[in-house]
Amino acid sequence: MFIGHWAPALAVAARRTAPGLGTLFIAGQLIDWAFFGLLLAGVEHMRFSPGISAMNPMDLYHMPYTHSLLGSLGFAAAFAALVWLASRDRLAALLGGTVVLSHWLLDLLVHVPDLTLAGSPPKLGLGLWNHPWAEMPLELGLTFGALWLYARARRPAPLRLGVLAAILLLLQGVNWFAPAEPQVTAGTSLLAFFAYGLATLAAWWMGKSAANSA
């Protein structure tokens, strides 16, 4: 799951009482922001193994802190606490934390077994990455269905809406169809940060034009 992680952010942001869309886009990918940071630091690990699944060559063999259910709950609680400290709004904090936690639940659908409950086996994953005919329409349907719900509720500027939609589609196309890297380098994390940052910036920009935006 890649752009599909932003579907909960868009759906939640359709509520006028929710945190800003840029904040929620950070929440949707917070687990992967942390993973690629820990990968860069040598704390968590992955390698490229073409064929490990039909759609994704990443062998995510050691990520006990970010992609365990317990770790995800910790990130969700920390994010909710930050939102509460910034806004003193319990509902906004709860919504933000829920978007963070949704990352692990969506990954459970698509990952081959590499997720854990608390950092050690058993490893979990329903493996939709091995079934492109199911995973691809699911990811696009979730993302653009949520974008439609957001646009219907918040009426952002059409140009900004179109820019975000184009960026999301471009990023997902690169993710699906670009050649796999031969090995993990610092550039692996930096490329991920660029993609997440670009989408988040576009979402923040669109959100500023939404009806009743903060």
Question: Which properties best describe this structure?
Answer:
214 residues; two-stranded antiparallel ribbon; 8 helices; globular
Largest sheet geometry: 2 strands, antiparallel
Continuous helix count: 8
Number of spatially distinct domains = 1
CA-atom Rg in angstroms: 17 Å
The number of strands is 2
SSE string, helices as H and strands as E: HHHEEHHHHH
Structural class designation: mainly alpha
Strand content: under 5%
Side-by-side strand order of the widest sheet: 1-2
Query: Would you tell me the overall average pLDDT?
Result: 96
Q: What oligomeric arrangement do these chains adopt?
A: single chain
Shape: globular
Contiguous runs where pLDDT drops below 50 for at least 5 residues: none
Q: How helical, in percent, are the residues?
A: 55-70%
Distance between the termini: 29 Å
Mind sketching the topology for me?
Elements: H1 7-13, H2 21-28, H3 30-41, E1 45-48, E2 58-62, H4 69-87, H5 90-110, H6 132-154, H7 158-177, H8 186-207
Helix pairs in contact: 1-2, 1-6, 2-5, 2-8, 3-8, 4-5, 7-8
Can you give a write-up of this model?
This protein is mainly alpha-helical. The protein has one domain. The chain contains 8 helices and 2 strands, in the order H-H-H-E-E-H-H-H-H-H. It has a two-stranded antiparallel sheet. The longest helix is centred in the last third of the chain and has 23 residues, at 132-154. The mean pLDDT is 96.
